[in-house]
């Protein structure tokens, strides 16, 4: 049996969002002679504060980090062209905090704008006194019931990081909620953090999930068949929550290997009725629409960061054969209703009205 931590030491730990579903209210010990696996909980000491100066805690608050702090994060990976590429360490040697949501990994490339990553010294893997290492997988939701009906589902994909995917999902959730629908939203890939989740909630989504609810701290390097299973499970939980429409966000850009393969996976095609592309510039919309069609998806329109520019919006509209929606316009019941009606024209709102009629009245 391993010796358990003293309660006063545990109380001082800063525990990250990424591991929030694991129960730490029990006797905890330390395992120091086993290699880490994806999702294992590690107690680490901050040795130098770099790019990430704050840690997002389980409740969403971002806590300042100081050298000497003991933090609880999850071992994982990161794929972020605008920040870091980082891999799973093979041992408990010094590593890095690669995401504010709480991911420990080894950085092997960074964007030139990024500072040196915050440095961590692993103390050991958190375990039960009998030596069983804690992993985020133990906090995963159980398998959902098999859906008995189809829920209209719109996926938002992007040309790159920071193309406006999450804003597009949140705006669409807002518009559909205002149209009288019960909306579910989920993020099926990415790096564990609460920002997108809270954005969906604030927009009015009634049921919200991300991959951390299904036992992953991040999805880079995770086999695509497993990601497809997670996507199906998340969607199943939304349907079980009695949503009338489901919105799915897939992280990173269309050229990210996992994103590209997942977009082509039969399981995702079975779920999705249409895709909205979020892009950072007008030229990207042309390539993005082509790539989505090559992967077999119906493209419902384009939105995202580029619509902040009237000139870029004009360029995209001239080049595309699908609608271009200003991101904020998707918050309108009329525009959001028009998007959904293109794939589910007969859907009724919670008040019993036809969505197309509600959208027309709202306009």
From TrEMBL:
Domain of life according to the entry: Bacteria
Alphabetized InterPro entries for the sequence: P-loop_NTPase
This protein's name = DUF1611 domain-containing protein
User: From which organism does this entry originate?
Assistant: Longimycelium tulufanense
């Amino acid at each position: 049996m391993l010796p358990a931590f003293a309660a006063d030491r545990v109380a001082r730990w800063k525990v990250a969002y990424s591991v929030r579903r694991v129960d730490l209210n029990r006797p905890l010990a330390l395992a120091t002679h086993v290699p880490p696996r994806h999702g294992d909980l590690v107690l680490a000491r901050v040795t130098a504060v770099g790019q990430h100066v704050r840690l997002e805690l389980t409740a969403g608050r971002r806590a300042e980090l100081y050298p000497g702090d003991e933090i609880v994060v999850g071992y994982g990976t990161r794929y972020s062209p605008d920040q870091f590429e980082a891999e799973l360490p093979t041992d408990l040697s010094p590593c890095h905090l690669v995401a504010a949501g709480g991911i420990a990994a080894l950085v092997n490339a960074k964007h030139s704008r990024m500072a040196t990553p915050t440095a961590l010294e692993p103390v050991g893997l958190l375990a039960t006194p009998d030596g069983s290492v804690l992993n985020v997988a133990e906090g995963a939701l159980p398998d959902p019931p098999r859906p008995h009906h189809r829920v209209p589902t719109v996926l938002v994909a992007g040309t790159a990081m920071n193309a406006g995917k999450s804003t597009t999902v949140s705006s669409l959730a807002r518009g559909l909620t205002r149209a009288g629908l019960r909306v579910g939203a989920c993020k099926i890939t990415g790096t564990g953090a609460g920002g997108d989740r809270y954005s969906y909630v604030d927009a009015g989504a009634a049921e919200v999930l991300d991959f951390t609810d299904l036992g992953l701290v991040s999805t880079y390097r995770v086999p695509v068949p497993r990601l497809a299973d997670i996507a199906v499970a998340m969607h199943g939980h939304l349907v079980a929550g009695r949503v009338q429409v489901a919105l799915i966000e897939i992280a990173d850009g269309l050229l990210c290997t996992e994103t590209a393969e997942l977009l082509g996976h039969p399981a995702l095609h079975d779920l999705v009725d249409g895709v909205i592309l979020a892009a950072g510039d007008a030229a990207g919309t042309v390539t993005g629409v082509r790539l989505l069609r090559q992967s077999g998806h119906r493209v419902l329109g384009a939105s995202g960061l580029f619509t902040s520019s009237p000139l870029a919006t004009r360029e995209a509209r001239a080049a595309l054969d699908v609608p271009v929606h200003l991101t904020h316009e998707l918050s309108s019941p009329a525009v959001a209703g028009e998007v959904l009606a293109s794939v589910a024209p007969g859907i009724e709102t919670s008040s019993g009205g036809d969505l197309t009629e509600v959208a027309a009245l709202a306009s």
